[in-house]
Every structure is written in C-alpha cells, then in structure tokens.
Write a structure and sequence with these properties.
The protein is 37% helix and 19% strand. By secondary structure, it is α+β, with helices and mostly antiparallel strands. The chain has a single domain (28-97), classed as OB fold (Dihydrolipoamide Acetyltransferase, E2P), CATH 2.40.50.
Length: 99
Amino acid sequence: MAPRLLLLLLPLILLLWLNLICVAAIPKCCVTTSKNIDPAVLRKVVSVKFQSAGGVCEVDALVLHVKRRRICAHPAVKKILTKMLKGRRGKKKLFIIGN
C-alpha cells in the first residue's frame, strides 16, 4: 500500500517543485516609467538598479527601491537623484546596480 501511495504522490511533488522553479525564473520588468517622482520619495531611495532594454525587459528604466516598494523611473531621473543625494553626508550611501 505504501509504495503505491508513494508512486501517486511523487509526480505531484515533482510538478509542484517544477512550478516553483519556473515562477522564480520570471523577471520583474518595468513596463512603463515615470519622470515625475516626488522629491520626498527620491530622498527615501535605498538602492537603484538599472534595467536595460537590451536584455529580457523591453524598456530602459531605473528601478528605485524605497522600503518595500519598487518604483519604475525614467533614466533621466538619475541626474536628479544623484544631485539630490550628493549632500547625504553621514547617512547611508546609495547602492546603485548597473550603469
């Protein structure tokens, strides 16, 4: 009885495992970007990642990480962000990934 039950459960476990792997492999891409981002939000940025249109994603974007949120910004926002955060002395440095 136990081997038969194991034979029935094994394919289900395998399908569940494969499903988890496939879901984790899907990239989170920005579809649209915004140039108008509130300066108060820009001051709270913890890290920035550059999303390139040449890869899996279709749009060039700056992915701004603010607490538990991701904000898709236009690449032109990088100039504003660097000017704004230049005076961040004594505070945590901004972590930029990519270009």
